[in-house]
Amino acid sequence: MAINLASKYSGKIAEKFTKESFVAGNASKEYDFAGVRSISVYTPVTVDLNDYKRSGKDRFGETIEMEDTVQEMELTQDKGFSISIDRGNNVDQMNIKGAGRMLNLQIREKVVPFMDRYTIEKWSKDAGQIAELSAVPTADTIVGSIFDGATALDNALVPDADRYMYLPSAYYNMLRLSKEFLAVDNLAEKSLTKGLVGMVADMKVIKVPDSYFPDGLYFMITHKRSVLNPNKIKTMRILSDVQGIDGNVLEGRTYFDAFVVGAKADGVYSAVADGKQTALPVIGLSEASATITAVSGVTFYYTVDGTDPRYSKSAQVYSSAVTLTSGQTMKAYGKKAGEFPSGVSEKTYTA
Fold first, then answer.
1. Of 333, 211, 347, 220, residue with least CA distance to 277
2. Which of 220, 139, 137 minimizes the C-alpha distance to 179?
3. In the 8-state DSSP scheme, what is residue 111?
4. Of all helices (H) and strands (E), which one includes residue 249?
5. CA–CA distance, 344 with 229 (Å, rounded to integer)
6. What is the rounded CA–CA span in Å between residue 235 and residue 229?
7. Quick one: DSSP state of residue 109?
8. Whether the Cβ atoms of residue 334 and residue 300 lie closer than 8 Å to each other
9. Based on the number of CB atoms within 10 Å of its own CB, is 156 exposed (0-12), middle (13-18) or buried (19 or more)?
10. 336 CB-near residues (< 8 Å, 6+ apart)
11. 293, 295, 296: which is closest to 282 by C-alpha?
12. Do residues 33 and 39 touch, judged by C-beta distance below 8 A?
């Protein structure tokens, strides 16, 4: 890209209109990635209730050792940048490229938007609940679709507090005209989350630029404790007197990722376009042999230990028939590039 030297009358650089992060601060802080690249999250597995017996042994029911599931979370995004500001170019442009100002510009225009787009896509595709809408939302249907999402969280026993709904600007313009929408000007809360424009269905509405949403996502609901966006390294610095360069060098590095907590995955709901979610896997059983019907472009992941393959450390890529023991369950889901992952299918073998 060419360096355009300022003319005598050019007063400043035109800055793009940018915003700070829409997701930072809206995620759980329960897990600590400090000093490590990945963490394992252990979730205890509870047991069903029994009928209490007033005589005999085992009156409370059979004693079952409490098991747990393990979800491995590993940071994958390690990004950096390096920009030079030559002293001669800066002088010819009347010193309008102040190093500190340019570093802040880089962060606002490139770093934060990249991280937000990645996080929204990752959360939405790892959601515990993905719902295909039969039609594109309209001014008449958008509120009903949002309340359907809120109801899905209610039925999954997700707490009412700390729910956020991320809505692209195009649909916000529909929502804001509805009587169910409470504009932020009417809220008592004045310490505002970035992008917060109001509330609907007891959820904070975060208006996000349309370009931040992956193809096919209409809106997303998250509960704060269901999502993570750890950022281990945030190096941003200005170097002067760099060998071979007469001027300043701006450097930055961010080491981050985004996750959905498997044990609380039903606290994340994605409303997506019809046909944008991979179809449920078809599991077949022939005696003890479990097979998954192949689908072009789809990779299937499965578990046989009862855990959810979308989040379990024990999930494996399916390649051939799997032999089950009596009482064992195969759970599987599918992923295809450009689509949202499928739900989970399961089959249990009983001898």
1. 333
2. 139
3. I
4. strand 247-256
5. 25
6. 17
7. I
8. yes
9. middle
10. 278, 295, 297, 298, 299
11. 293
12. yes
Which 8-state DSSP code applies to residue 4?
-
Least confident stretch, 7-11, 253-257, 323-327:
7-11
Tokens matching residue 299: 């990779």
Percent of the chain scoring above 90 in pLDDT:
63
Q: Hey, where are the domains in the chain?
A: 77-231+257-273, 283-348
Residue type (1 letter), 44? P
> SS3 for 308?
coil
Predicted model pTM: 0.87
Distance of CA 18 to the CA centre of its chain: 21
Predicted pLDDT of residue 186: 53
Identity at 95, one-letter amino acid code: N
Helices and strands in the chain, H and E counts: 5, 21
- CB 341 within 8 Å of CB 334: yes
Mind listing the pLDDT tens digit for each residue in 69-115? Answer: 889 999 999 999 999 999 887 776 656 678 888 888 898 889 999 99
pLDDT digits (tens, 9 = 90+) for 179-189: 888 776 555 45
Extract the tokens encoding 206: 């975060």
Say how far apart CA 205 and CA 203 lie, in whole Å: 6
Q: Residue 81: which region, alpha, beta or left (left: phi > 0; alpha: psi -120 to 50)?
A: beta
- Sheet hosting strand 299-303, strand order edge to edge: 316-317, 299-303, 329-335, 345-348
Bridge-based pairing of strands 268-273 and 129-133 is: parallel
CA distance 49 to 60: 9
